[in-house]
Structure formats: C-alpha cells, structure tokens
Records
---
Amino acid sequence: MKIRFLKGNNMKYNLLKLINKIFNKKNNKIESLPPTQRKKTISYSEPIEIDFKNILKFNMSDTVRNGKNNNNQILLQEILAKSKKEKDFKVSIGNQNVHINLESKIPFILITPSHLENGQALVMESNNLETNNIELLLKQALNTGRELNDILNGSNPILIPILPSESPTAPYYQQLSRECFENGKRPDLDILETIDKAKEIMYKEYNTKVNDKIFLNGYSTSGCFAQRFSLIHPELIDTACIGGASGSIPIPNTDLDYPLGIKNYEELFGKSFNIEEYKKIKFDYYVGSLECEIKSLTRTDEDGNLAPMHDMSYFNRSVPPDVGRVQRKNLGQDMFERAEKIVNILKNMGINISHRIIPNRTHNNKEAIELMKNNPNYKDIKGIYDEQRQIISSSFRNMLQRKNNMKKENNEILKD
C-alpha cells in the first residue's frame, strides 16, 4: 500500500506554477532550478513513482479548457522527476505554506497558514479519485486543498492524504472497503501516521500543537471514506461533514457487517467499538434531492431495475453484496427512505446527526445538464456545489462555536 514514487510518460511540469495557478495567487515570485527532462514508459504493474531533487518540477500548459471554471484552466500534460533524494518539501505562497510529502506510506499535501495558533483544528479530506493517472491525482489533491482553503478563508491547516489507486479489482482504498482490511492489512493506521506527520510538521515549523480531534470533510467517495474512518477511529473526529453518501450511512450495531455496521468490527480492527466516542462526533450529512435520478449502467436493484449510480448500497466494491442486500431488506430499497430510517435510528441511539436534502440538486453539475438534456420536465436544476460550500463553512463555524462555548463553560467552572 505504498505510493513512494509517481511514474509518467515524458514527464515535465512546474509544480510551483501549478500551485500558484490553483491557489489563484498573483505576483508571487518563486524561483527554482530548471528541470532536466527524461522519458519514461508508464507501467502500472510497478509502483507509481515521482523522483525529486530539492523540489518537484512541473511545466504546466496554460491551455484553458473551460473559461467559466478556474479549476479547469489547469491542464497537466507531463511530469518530470529529477532525483530520488528529496520527496519532502515546502513551497511558500503569499501568507500560506504548501507542504508536500511523497515519501510516507500515504503521500500527502498539507496547507498551512504562515501563522498557526495552539488548539486550532486540522481539517482533512481524502482524495476522491481512483486512478493511476498521475496528472489527475495531483491535480485533484491540490484542487481539493484549494477549495477547502477558500471555503475556510485560509484560517486552518488542511491535510489531503493521497490514497493509493492500484486497479479496479484491488481493494477500494478511497472508500476504505472491507477488502482493505483483510489478511491483517490496516490502511487506517497508515492514515493515522499521515495525520501524525502533519502534526509533527506544524509543531516543528510553527511550534504549534493543533487540536487532538479533526474536522473531517468528504463528498461522494471521500464522503464514504469519512463515514468509515469515523467508524474506525471515532476518538479522532470532532465533526464529520459528509455529502453525497446517504446510501451508506453506517449504524453502529451488530445487525450488519462493516462498513454498514459493526458485526465483524473486532475481527477487522482488533478492538471493541467505542460507542461513547462515536456519540461525541457531530455528523452533518447533506444530499441533493435528485441524487438518485442518474442510474448505473451495470448495477440493478432487487426488481431488475438499474440502481442509482451514487447509492453505494448497490456497489459491490464499496459494500459487500450480502451486506447491501440485508440493509435494503431491513431498511428499504429507496435511498432516501433508507437514509431517513437510519438517521432516526442513530438519533435514538444518541448519535448527533443531521441530514439535509437540498431541493432540485443533483450530485454534480454534469449530471444536472444530462438530466435537463434527456428530460424536458427537469428545468433550472444544477449540482450541489454552491450549497456544498455553504454547508461546509457552516459546519466548521458551528464546530468552532461549540468549542468556544465549552471553553467559556470550563472557565466559569474554574472561577467557581
């Protein structure tokens, strides 16, 4: 499960320019030595590889694919790797630093304000893409960091672990599927190591200790990751803000196996489930009302109809078929019906959870365009992007407010 190197064909790019573009910064001068180009042949049977010497170099095309979306203005074309000596470095951009570590078991990107304070919350979101395409992996990780950084106004450190992508038949690491933990494998411990390394960077470089608990964000695939990482390590999570994953909300009881329950939890993780820590997490779920309108081309429900693309209960790589079938039998085939029942069960268990359904919203803008094109009854619908930003920002502010209230209460107790 190690991604120590990234390999590419004819690779050459300037990462510094890439980061500048992604973070929309101007007039920031970053100087570095010119890269030396060499050609390589992509082989996905070998580890993904990136070589470094002092800093990773990229030359980026300025081609604009979609002028309406800044994210799409960046097209990665090649990646050049120079040396095997340095795979851990920092780039300063304006009043922020971007730390890139590609030598750990789970490579990661850490974005930090130049000024950190003790007790700040670390924000984490895993990469949301399963691919061996180097361009897409790095682009998405940086764009995910940029988006969160923009939503939070650059206030808090942001960690993006880049989980491995091996093949369509390999364990679904991006969603922490059950297969990831078979034969004693523990990718969650590698993620813990990544979090610890991020905290170590902040302590060494800024003399700062962040809060022990993190703000865990996720949408779609990274939303499933957030569900499951919270289940495995509830003691580390303060708030989990999760969108586009309402079909696979877990219930921490022994009716179902992981990842929808905890029947085989101890077998997989070698510990008992800590329900008291799980109750301390604030879960903020959200989903578009048109989430189920786009169907899978290969998955079917119990009646032989095409299943919703984004309902992971029907996706065998995410949820084992037997576990999904039992879940749907007990709680309903329809995702929204099932989610409503699950949320009520969790609330009765004392879990702090909210579930918001946003009218006339699809999983993303592309699907909204597809629906309107194929069905004239759909008008003025769009993806969830704008509401998503507001929900993440609100969830984060509410977490800070709870912490401030708790601090005031503790101070009052000390005064008495």
---
Amino acid sequence: MKGAMNMYELGDIVEMKKPHACIIKATNKKANAWQITRLGADIKIRCTNCNHIVMMTRRDFNKKIKKVLIKKSED
C-alpha cells in the first residue's frame, strides 16, 4: 500500500483486515475498530470495544490496515 503513511494519523479510528476476537454485545459481531495511540517506527493500536492494545511495526500495520473509519477531528 504505497503512500499509506499519509492515510492515517494519531487518534484516527481504523479498520483492520481481520476483526478482533472480542464481541460487541449490542450487535453480537466481532469488533474491528481500532484507535491509533502511537506513531513511529512501531504503531500502537487500541481496540475501541475492549481496550486491548496491540503494537506492531509500521510495515506490518501498512499490510494489515483496511481503511480509516474516522479521521481525528482538527482542533
């Protein structure tokens, strides 16, 4: 995914290719919304449903990201 570096920034909510194992009680579906909490050589994301934290290399993140769901609001 060339140019993926400019697609996301700190605080964005992203969808990954594989959903997280936790279940959203209201819909009974697997959660797949992650908030970016750290950007650098490594990227840290947090599940918006259960607050599980995953850290991966930027290269792995660029392979596994599907799309940006919500951009961080500009303040």
---
Amino acid sequence: MSYTEIVSEALELPLSDRLQIVNELVESFNPMKPDVEEKWEEELMERHRLFESGKIQTVSYEEVFGEG
C-alpha cells in the first residue's frame, strides 16, 4: 500500500480514529517507558477525578498566556 493510499484511507476514518493514529505515530518517535506511562495515566485520572468533583477548575489559554 502506498503512502498516498494510506493517507487517503486514513482521512476517511472518524476523527477519534485519526487522533489515535496520530498519537501512536508521535509516540513511536520517542516511546514512553511503561512505568512512566503508568504514572502519567494515574496522574491524569486523578486530575480528571478532581475536576469532576469540583475541587479543581480549568484555566483558559488566555489566562495562562495573558492573551485576550
């Protein structure tokens, strides 16, 4: 299968599938060590739990970078 065929077929996939492909390609350049990946997943789950419970809030791009 040629590069053009792969890209053409990939562009027909749903957004979530395309994002997963992009993520896997990016990770292939610098694979994360399994123990580090596990710790990041734990951290992300904890942040999500705190956000969902209302204990933390998001900060907008404009607030972080002083734009707007």
---
Amino acid sequence: MAKKSISKKPLKQEKPIKNRGKSDIQKKSSIKKSDSTTITGKKTSLNSEKQTKNIKTETTVQPLKKKKFNLKFAVFTSILTILSISTGAIFYLLMTDKLMFRAPMLYSKKTRITFTYGDVSYRENATAKWQKAAVGAELGDGYEIQTQKKSKADIRFSETLGIRIEQETHFVINQSNIYNKDMTLKRGAMIGKFKKEFQDQNIQIKTPTAVAGVRGTELGFEVSEYLPENSSEPNVLQATTLVYVISGIIEVENPQVVKENSMLLSDKSFTKIDQNNAPEDPKKIPENLEEDFKNQINAIHMEDVLLITEKILFEFNKAELKKESYQELDRIAKILKDRSEIIRIEGHTDKIGSASVNYHLSFKRAKAIREYLISKDISKKRLLIKAYGSTRPIVPNNSASNRAINRRVEFIIVK
C-alpha cells in the first residue's frame, strides 16, 4: 500500500520586528507576566480570577494642551460688561430725573450748602431733628433749612441757580431734579439767581401768600407777618409777601384768592401780596435797594467756601502784609494742613480807586497770601489765586465799616 504523501505546510515565519504594525507591538507589550501566569507560543492560560486582575494595561497619558489666550474675546467681554453697567446707570438717572438727553446733555448735581455764617441748621423732613448746617451738606426733597438772627446761608441747586437766605428764615426744598426746582419760603428773606438750564425747566417759588413761576431772573422774596386793620380777629397775625424782580420776568399770583389774579412782574419792580388779596400794582424798586440786592446776588457762592476773613490786613494801597495779619494766616495754615483739597485764594477790595487799580491790587494781595502759606509748608500745588477787585462787594461801599467788610479774602474749595 502506497504511503500517502503528507504535505507539510510551511511554518509561518514571524514578521521582522521592524515590519510589525504598531497594533501588534502594543498588544504584546500590554501584557505583563505575573508569578502564576504562563505564556506559551500558541495559548495563554489564566489560572484564576485573581490572575486576571493582575493583568495591567498600559495607558499613555498625553499632556494637556494649553489654551491660547483669546484677546478679541476678552476685549468683547469687557466692552459688553461696561455697556451693561453704563446702561443700568443711565436708566437709573433717567428714572430719578437726574439726567436729561439734550444738546448738551444735562446732569443734575445734588443741591448743597456752599456757605454758612452764624447759626444755621437743617433737617431731612418736617419731623426730623434739627442739626447744625455745614458747608458741603447735601440736601434732598423735603429738606428744611433755617437761619437765626445775624445768620445767613448759600444754597446751590445747579450751575445756574443759587440762593441766599438770611436773618430769621425758614426755607423748604419741595423738589429738586433736572426738570423741576420747587421751593417754599415760609418766613424770612431769600434772594437768588434763577437762570433756567433749558427752556422747559420748571422753577417755582412759594410763600404763604404767593406762587411765582420763574422765567429766568434775579429775584428777592420777603415774608413777614402783620396785624390787619378792621379784622374780625384783630389779634391774629396774617402773612404778607414782598416780591422783587431785579432782572428778568416772573408770573406771580395769590393761590388763596379764588378769582384770576396772576400778574407779570418785570425788571426793577416789586409787588406786595397780602393774605386773601391779589398782588398789588407793581412799583419801581428804589435805587439804593436795587444796589443792595445786586451786592447780595454777587455774594452768593456757587462753590464750597472754606472760610472768609477780613482779618488779613495790608498797608494802604499796597500788597505788603501787616504784622497783625500773621496770627490769622497761621490759623489758616493750620486748617489747611488738616485738609487735602486744592484751595483758591480770592482777593476783593472796596471801591476806592479805579477798577483797574483795584483788580491788580487784589491780585498782588492774593499772591502775597499764597507766598506766606507756602512758607508755612503748604504745597504750592494746592494754592490757586484769583482777583476780583471791587466787582463783588457784599455790602454798599457807603461807609468806612462797610468798605472794611468788602476788603476781604475768600478761601474757596476747588476739589
């Protein structure tokens, strides 16, 4: 019987390592030998479940890629945040009537006390306690201010609206925003400049017997009480109001009178309004009173006043300081050392001499004061000077005592 020829299949040769694929190498390298595991050429036997757990697979950990800084995205996010905050702020200001879009855009600053002299106090509303008024105090709707005998205070509502109250005065701020300036003089005297910031702005002044709509003017008000003649109640005081128009025009009426009684009052005229009566026919303001009103309006401070002094003395018609002034200047230097604001030194003279001479004299005197304060270690950068000469008297220059009051130095807080 013939033997069958058995053809042997040729043994598969392993591929050289260099020709092997990456998958083959990774498969072989991923298996590590353990003490109880044997690996043969064809079969791999795993003896137990524990041995299976002992097989570890290698993983390659790739380093995290650093994210590139996106400048455009950062800028966009910042701009979006700023716009969001700005929009919210503008919306709030518009809703509270502190901002108005027009050309130019107007922003209502807070009403504040800029100057006090003597006994001045204020309170937040009619039921709050009175407290001593100080320069820089901010006032809001419902605030009340009062001055006692020989006392005065300046109040700034805006860049173009400022008033002065003095003597025994009780004054109330009803409303103060970009659209409306509404105030009441309960008693006493008030004078001010009431220039509108824009045409449709409403400025209204009230007293016990009058309501005045302001169209842009310089005004004076005086509220007093009197005993009426032939009254059914002879011992009951009644109020009366004097309204003075130094310049401009206003419309005034008595709201207690039923019938139409409004009156237009123009330049250099005044009227009297008694309780339950319509305004009297206008009369011309006497010249001496007109000058006094103008002096008072010139004296109203639209910026915060640190102090005003008449104790800094100079040689006649010169900018040379007298020795008697050193004590006052040293006191001022001490005040300035305790503060950090920039101060403007303003020089004023009386009306003796020409306007040009007085202007240059007030400038030199303000400069001399600055040099003295610099010698007392006050920084030159904090001290500005300005000269007004005789253009801003606060009392008539008709007596030696009044001229001495007008020869003054004012220290104004700039910032």
